[in-house]
Amino acid sequence: MSTSTADTKLNAITIRVAIIAALAGLLFGMDIAYVNGSLEFIVKSFTLTLSESQHVAGTLLIGAAVGAIFSGALSKKWGRKTVLIIAASIFTIFTFVGVFSPNFEILLVSRFIVGIAVGIASFISPLYLSEIAPRHFRGALIAMYQLMITIGIFLMYLCNSALAQTGSWRIMLAAIAIPSIIMLIGCLTLPKSPRWLVLVGRNDEAEVVLKKIRNTEAEAENELNEIRDSISVNSSGFKLLRHGFFIKVLILGVLLQAFQQFTGMNAFMYYSTDIFKMAGFTNPAVATIIIGLVNMLTTLLAIKYVDRFGRKPILYFGLFLLFVSCFIVGAVFKTHYSYEIINGAVQSHIVLSPVLQWTTLIFSLVFIFGFAISMGPVIWILCSEIQPLEGRDFGITASTTANWLCNAILGNFALTWLTFAPGNTFIAFGVVCLVCIGFTKLFVPETKGVSLEQIESNLKAGMPLAKLGR
Ligand code: BGC
Fold first, then answer.
1. What is the CATH number of the domain that holds 350?
2. Residue 443: is its pLDDT beyond 70?
3. For an engineered disulfide with 220, which of 131, 214, 342, 453 has Cβ 3.0 to 4.6 Å away?
């Protein structure tokens, strides 16, 4: 594998294309964070019970799992660009359906369908980015998708808090329509993925796209040859299931996404306001905004360093911070928190000294930093890098669906766990992070600067997972 100076430069067209594709991440983030500040107004508007109100968050996550399941087959059949356009159209249309929904049922249906688009986008966007990125920027471009998620979350926290005065969940939701429309228009101008074009036998078109997005003709031709070599005729994700090498990366992708979710990050994303309320903060919304800001700024750092330091060192560093912060926050809650049930309602008791309150806040921020520098971006990067081309749609479908299913478990249950046993919940998240450090050492490959085709040929040659990037 040779590296010329040309393929170490990122050109303007690749940057533009990457930004448009990564807008899917922005919508993903905004839709996830929407519930955090709007739920109380939705509850008032439709006079919902507690269980009905949980469906607002839950239906989006279930829709996302459904979207992720089908996105592999769709993107293989119709191509990445077409499916991105479909996702952008669903975002736009059903966000408006939600804004104008006359009753709770229609709001739920619209959230479920937007969830499908979120699931599809969370699959296609990193896949498309990995397929158009020059290899030396692949990590950074996929991390940009993660950055967009965090920008989306932060913008929505800000928006929710700025619009809280209006008491209108409809206006809050309408804010999401703006990037949806921009994404829809932008997606129409995207080139088709050259790897998908080769996969469906349209080599000439692939060459035209590569010449447009690479710096030199030689670079484009080399890459086309590499892609062609990596495809063996008549193979599909399902057929690959007969091969041990494919099962191995399939399981690796699914476990990596499960680990990402069970670090507990989304417990903060959905319920940070409740966590800070429990810790006795009088203005938990401000703490939530700070969390969103740290998440976003740290992801910027990750983009800078992921292709410089490599995936594994960053994972070790981040997971260590996650482990330490989970244990410290867990210990504070375990020693100071109790609850009783009065008339069927949970009454929590916690008195923290200012030092312990600040300890909780600071280590919550260390947690967010640790996640955003490592597990957030790196897991999406790895999952889109490790699959062989013919099994990529199937493999990423499986890992993305695992991400959403585990996310749905957290979305639906974490608040209960946090209410009844916050100390043990954080400690359990810490244990997951510790196990993940060992898992990374044993099974995660270092893919920094290695072409997707090289990773694939190592995999097919039977190399152990941890050595795929050699
Ligand atoms: C995760 C999401 C999470 C987000 C937070 C993503 O990588 O997949 O579940 O909400 O990071 O920044």
1. 1.20.1250.20
2. yes
3. 214
- Residue ranges lining ligand 1, Cβ < 6 Å: 32, 146, 149-150, 153, 260, 265-266, 269, 295, 376, 380, 403, 407
248: in domain: yes
Residue with the smallest CA separation from ligand 1 atom 6 is 376
Structural domain for 11, as ranges: 6-190+232-467
pLDDT digits over 134-187, tens only?
Answer: 777 777 777 788 889 999 999 999 998 889 889 899 999 999 999 999 999 999
Q: How close is the Cα of 324 to the center of ligand 1, in Å?
A: 20
The predicted pLDDT at position 235 comes to 52
Q: What is the pLDDT of residues 187-242, one digit of tens each?
A: 998 889 888 898 888 988 988 888 888 888 888 888 888 888 766 544 556 677 78
375 CA: nearest ligand 1 atom: 7
Ligand 1 atom showing the smallest separation from residue 32 Cα: 10
Residue 28 alpha carbon to ligand 1 centre in Å = 9
Distance of alpha carbon 170 from alpha carbon 434, whole angstroms:
42
Please give the number of the atom of ligand 1 that sits closest to the Cα of 257: 8
Q: Is 327 part of a structural domain of the chain?
A: yes
Is residue 204 situated within a structural domain? Answer: no
Q: Whose CA is nearest to atom 11 of ligand 1?
A: 376
Contact 152, 26 (CB under 8 A): yes
Separation CA 112–CA 274 (nearest Å):
25
**Domain count for the chain:** 1
Cα of 406 to ligand 1 centre, how many Å? Answer: 12
Report if residue 148 sits inside a domain.
yes
Residue 337, SS3? strand
Strand partners, 346: 341
For the segment 356-407, what is each residue's pLDDT rounded down to a tens digit?
999 999 999 999 999 999 999 999 889 988 988 778 778 888 998 999 999 9
All residues at 6 or more sequence positions from 252 whose CB lies less than 8 Å from its CB, including other chains:
386, 443, 444, 465
CA of 467 to the centre of ligand 1 (A): 27
Closest ligand 1 atom number to CA of residue 380: 7
pLDDT of residue 1: 40
**DSSP classification of residue 347:** E
